Amino acid sequence: MQAVTQDRFGGPEVLRLATVDRPAPGPAEVLVRIHAAAVNPTDVWHRATGGLAGTGVPPVPLGWDLSGTVEAVGIGVTLFRPGDEVFGMPRHPAPAGTYAEYATSPARHLVRKPAGLDHVAAAALPLAGLTAWQALVDTADVQPGQRVLVHAAAGGVGHLAVQIAKARGAYVIGTASAAKHGFVRSLGADEVVDYRTTDFAETVAGVDVVLDTIGGAYGPRSLRTLRPGGLVVSLASPAEAALADEAARHGVRAVFLAVEADHAGMRALADLAERGALRPHIAQVLPLAQAGRAHELSQSGRTSGKIVLTTAAHRPTSAGDPR
Question: Residue 191 sits in which domain range?
Answer without folding.
Answer: 128-256
